[in-house]
Write a structure and sequence with these properties.
homodimer; seven-stranded mixed beta sheet; four-stranded antiparallel beta sheet; 16 strands; about 35% helix; Aminotrans_3 (chains A, B); 4-aminobutyrate aminotransferase, mitochondrial (chains A, B); 4-aminobutyrate:2-oxoglutarate transaminase activity (chains A, B); pyridoxal phosphate (chains A, B); PyrdxlP-dep_Trfase (chains A, B)
């Protein structure tokens, strides 16, 4: 099959339906001889103005879901061939720009269903016809509460970087009171200076992980190896609550710890405003994953959300690791029970594409790059979401997660010198091991017995099974884990 | 076919070859009832130590091409099913980590040839078996001179961001004289402070474009709209030569202008070192694309390369837009005729995947993220490169480019009040229009006649056809362009 696909995609066969007459010559003194028979059209052919009615209709549809300011027109990649790009209104254009120079060979897609994989359109300017429909079926069908717009990106770090930019732009527009930058703004930004490149900051939490590009990295504080030797920004870092588990047994102490952290957040916002680097946004994970599976209560997040409101900071929930069902709800922030949980929710990993949801006022008109994600990932995501619904996988996750956590509690009671602080929501579980060396050796012993686990924080093991991990698998895992732990007694 | 693919990928059919016996129960008081017949294995099965001999062999192969420090083992994704990941030595493991939590549903890939598209492995830790081979066939088969290592990334911005990090790490290791950070380095980096997060800089050029994430954006200086409202770094910005075209007619003046810019580069390196923000690397495009198709001579780049050597700065050539054949050579920097053109060459766009080549000493052990690119793009790239070779497309580009530039010279002579500074290498051509408004209206008129063009800089039109744009297409284009220009006379 593969060979056939490539043959169709790249073969230079003749196609008798396509006209091969040389174009009439209006400028050049001679038409170049056609030395090769080509699998394409014989010239441009225009039927409507551009964008035509169908493009306009699709732009209206897509405009409900994301910013369409940069879109030229929608494309029919199935009909596009060789050097000719065909739009959804049947206009056929000679392409001397090739998606901002990103197409190496040609538009050529005889196998329509595979065309999303082999064409990599510049989504921000020339999306395919089915893009609004696929976006609605995939990302928009699982929008967080209060958000009906999504911007796709190629990876998790790009998602957070671009979300930060949206927050900075939103904050500066709010400060200015309008969207029109001054001459001084425009001049100074070209040389990296304020006010055009303002001294704004993002408040993050110690132990948080938000990616490894330079903006993201300034908000990542989980391991030194991620940050070492890379220049950074002077941005505020708040303490994340260090809670005792199980949470329900330590409610009073944990509430005190959370209150201490929230107070510190407010202090930092005031301090950074005073030192001329106002906090434009706050970024936080619903469960600090890379940093050691650190939980906080719904009450903590509700209060933090209010602090963001009170100080005019955007509130960005990073669901790159927690999103897409692992906690038994589609988004981990749904456990907070809020109608207005965030201004921005970023995602990646299980979602197969990176990106972020945002409220209307975070119009990312200036959020742009060549690819803006990859439409093939939307197709896959739509199907993944169908399976999640059809198989009731969120219920499955809740059921398996309960069995997993109960099993960890039992093992913790059985091996009190080895295990502590078993915790989790859904199958998003973790347990602490007595020290880092033992944790690392347990990971290897489990692998040698056929179970793949991951570490996080200094001495935790994190469980991150797929959404089809059932009670049956939980027990296979617990059997192996018990065997491993027994070797340490 | 699509439906069949999905059926195979996501259907939960029974498979009589797979054993469904419940596992024996060593820990749990009861084995969970199996409520669903599953398309997977019945438990782990280990055959060798992990990594086994085949994994080790592949790691050795891949180690010749990129850093393998984080790789756990190589996977056989064809044999992996449901919750079980199978490695290349036949070990079958229950997966409770799922590629750093990035697999939503399952490993399941009955159609081996499509598995690269639907599985999205975490390449840095669990690459597929054919990854070394595909990397050798694709990226490594077109390595720039002096470079035999490549790191893939998801997009152009991530490529440059991670290349910057490689340069910073390299520079700090050089300063330290060894690779072992101090306690002070480790402590300070966690809170974004120096010396752990050092005050190093990247020198860039006015008019350059290197992407839009926050590190990249600090080196991008093409349009204010890209940079406005985003905090930045105080990094040095050198002037890029403003040359007169055709280059061969103004050699003396152009050489003076280039000498002025080179002198400024050296001054900035010294100044930034003096103010405590040493220049770790220099980034430059072989032709400034987004900034207006600004050329410089091979002599300029050779001298700039020497300045980087002299001052101990890394030299990073950004070929995101110029790479992959558009100039008639595979890499634009090949026109400089140097054996040692750069320390780092980044790419994206036409290459279908982002990434960067680097010299051995820029070992990116700490360059890591979940996806590290997308192996399906390597498969596509390998095929694209085969077509480029088989069809002699680089020769085709040189031939078409010559015809295109000759045509632009003729039109420029014909419309001297409208066109100026026609220039280009291969089909990577551009021409200036008398003012921005006219340029924009020409772009629209050409589109209405069925030719897609792009602008760059303030008033240039850039030509970026695909590699199969032949002389025949050049003449179609010139005819239409002539018709458009005639409307302005």
């Amino acid at each position: 099959m593969w060979q056939q696909v490539w043959w169709l995609l790249f073969g230079l066969e003749t196609n008798s339906k396509l006209n091969k007459q040389p174009p009439c010559c209006r400028f050049a003194s001679k038409a170049a001889p056609k030395t090769q028979v080509e699998f394409e059209y014989d010239g441009p052919s225009m039927k409507t103005e551009v964008p035509g009615p169908r493009s306009k209709e699709l732009a209206k549809q897509l405009g409900e879901m994301q910013n369409v300011g940069a879109i030229n027109f929608f494309c029919n990649y199935e009909e596009s061939r060789g050097n000719y790009l065909v739009d959804v209104d049947g206009n056929r254009m000679l392409d001397v720009y090739t998606q901002i120079s990103s197409i190496p060979i040609v538009h050529r897609s005889p196998l329509s269903l595979l065309s999303a994989f082999v064409n990599r359109p510049a989504l921000g300017i020339l999306p395919p016809e089915n893009f609004p429909e696929k976006l609605a079926e995939s990302l928009l069908s699982v929008s967080p509460s209060g958000m009906s717009r999504a911007q796709t990106m190629a990876c998790g770090s790009c998602s957070n970087e671009n979300a930060f930019k949206s927050m900075f732009i939103w904050y500066r527009n709010k400060e200015r009171g309008h969207n029109n930058p001054s001459e001084e703004d425009i001049r100074s930004c070209m040389i990296n200076q304020s006010p055009g490149c303002p001294n704004l900051s993002i408040l993050s939490f110690m132990g948080g992980f938000h990616g490894r590009t330079m903006g993201c990295l300034a908000t990542t504080h989980s391991k030194a190896i991620h940050k070492l030797d890379v220049p950074s920004f002077d941005w505020p870092i708040a303490p994340f609550p260090k809670l005792k588990y199980p949470l329900e047994e330590f409610t009073r102490e944990n509430a005190q710890e959370e209150a201490r952290c929230l107070e510190e957040v407010e202090d930092l916002i005031v301090q950074w405003r005073q030192k001329g680097r106002p906090v434009a946004g706050i970024i936080i994970e619903p469960i600090q994953a890379e940093g050691g599976d650190n939980h906080a209560s719904p009450d903590f997040f509700r209060k933090l959300r209010n602090i963001a409101h009170k100080h005019g900071c955007a509130f960005h929930v990073d669901e790159v690791q927690t999103g897409c069902g692992a906690t038994g709800k589609f988004w981990a922030h749904e456990h907070w029970g809020m109608e207005d949980p965030a201004d921005i929710v970023s995602f990646s990993k299980k979602m197969l594409t990176g990106g972020f949801y945002h409220k209307d006022e975070f119009q990312p008109y200036r959020i742009f790059n060549t690819w803006m994600g990859d439409p093939s990932k939307n197709l896959l995501l739509a199907e993944v979401l169908n399976v999640i619904r059809r198989e009731n996988l969120l219920e499955e996750v809740s059921r398996s997660g309960k069995a997993l956590l109960q099993g960890l509690y039992q093992l913790q009671a059985q091996y009190p010198n080895l295990l502590s602080s078993a915790r989790g929501v859904g199958t998003f579980c973790a347990v602490d091991i007595r020290d880092e060396a033992t944790r690392n050796s347990i990971l290897i012993k489990a692998r040698d017995k056929g179970v793949l686990l991951g570490g996080c924080g200094d001495r935790s093991i994190r469980f991150r099974p797929a959404l089809v991990f059932k009670e049956y698998h939980v027990h296979i895992f617990l059997n192996v884990f018990n065997d491993v732990l027994a070797e340490y007694n």
